Amino acid sequence: xxxxxxxxxxxxxxxxxxxxxxxxxxxxxxxxxxxxxxxxxxxxxxxxxxxxxxxxxxxxxxxxxxxxxxxxxxxxxxxxxxxxxxxxxxxxxxxxxxxx
Length: 100
Hints:
single chain; mainly alpha
């Protein structure tokens, strides 16, 4: 059972990194949409496209179930909340494994 704890910790690190990717993707999309960053710049386009490819598959699945509220996209918020919930369950599972 104690072998599961490091594996769960690795999953938690991956979830944390993906959460940072989501936050950075949202901030970068705001900067591009408001004209602060030029999306024709090759470096900006490369990062923007890479982040979109990492996040869009999960956003698409969420958007199938969530209605559109004007121009506001709630899928990153829902995804972050879901990841936070998964982390909480993984923490509880680690505590449960520690006590058994």
